[in-house]
Amino acid sequence: MKNLISVVGPTGIGKTRLAIDLAKHFNTEIVSCDSRQFFREMKIGTASPSEEELAEAPHHFIGNLSVKDYYSIGQYEEDALQKLNELFADHDTVILVGGSMMYEKAVIEGLNDLPEADENNQKKLQEIFENEGIEKLQEIVKKLDPEYFEVVDFHNHRRLLRAIDVIWQTDKKYSEQIAISQDSRDFNVIRIGIDAPREDLYDRINRRVDIMMEKGLLAEAESLEEFKDLTALKTVGYSELFKYFEGEWTLEFAVSEIKKNSRRYAKRQLTWYRKADDIHYLNLGYSQKDFEDLLEWISEEFQK
């Protein structure tokens, strides 16, 4: 069984460093699930790994797209799984890293966003089941989705009802919609987070914005102003500076808004991760000893 170690946590907490340290230890590669770092023109404002960091371990899905490219989370799920398959051919362990919550979910669980049961469909199907038996439901599934009929337990009327309901609602085969789902994950997932007192995290975020400005975020945003209506640029670090270019805000105010909005985003991420009970936490500013303890914990998990 192959292992995926997913490094999660809020913006600015140090995920990139931890992911690289893990990749070096396992002599493996890193798959990014940070949806803002996909875009090559947005290096500074998205805190993409530096040239030095990229040289320390092979990274995938960093700067692989242009802001002009349309890219959906469904496409990412497909691409990332394909990349993992390739990497697992040579490595037992691969590192996933990024704070885009839904993108991580897409890789480790599958989106599998099927509609809720439709009441009218359920009623109709229940009647068919009661009057014409399970054979009639089997017949409908076989006709609408022969591929699903091949794999479904067709004595389970609930499965049949669910499939027909979804097909009627979506006009798409059920088999296609569940193809990319949890069932197709044939690797173990271990999730690791970095924990920090909120004040420390907010300090780090504020400092990081100042560093971005020093590195040339203003010029980067200026070069992207013509694309400001594209989805990729409706994001923290850019939309605030566009208001400065339009003369709506002063530069000082725009920078303070970037800090505020980054902290807000971090808060949303923390809320999301707090709901999970499967994240193993390391403290911010962890020592070499902490890192060695983490490696020991990981190897115990692998053995399970």
UniProtKB/TrEMBL annotation:
Q: Tell me the Gene Ontology biological-process terms attached to this UniProt entry.
A: tRNA modification
Top class in the EC scheme: transferase
Q: EC number(s) in its UniProt entry?
A: 2.5.1.75
Q: Which UniProt keywords apply?
A: ATP-binding, Magnesium, Nucleotide-binding, Transferase, tRNA processing
A molecular function (GO) term: ATP binding
Q: Which cofactor does it need?
A: Mg(2+)
Similarity-based family: Belongs to the IPP transferase family.
Listed PANTHER family: TRNA DIMETHYLALLYLTRANSFERASE
Assembly and partners are described as: Monomer.
Query: What is this protein called in UniProt?
Result: tRNA dimethylallyltransferase
Q: What is the lineage of its organism?
A: Bacteria, Pseudomonadati, Bacteroidota, Flavobacteriia, Flavobacteriales
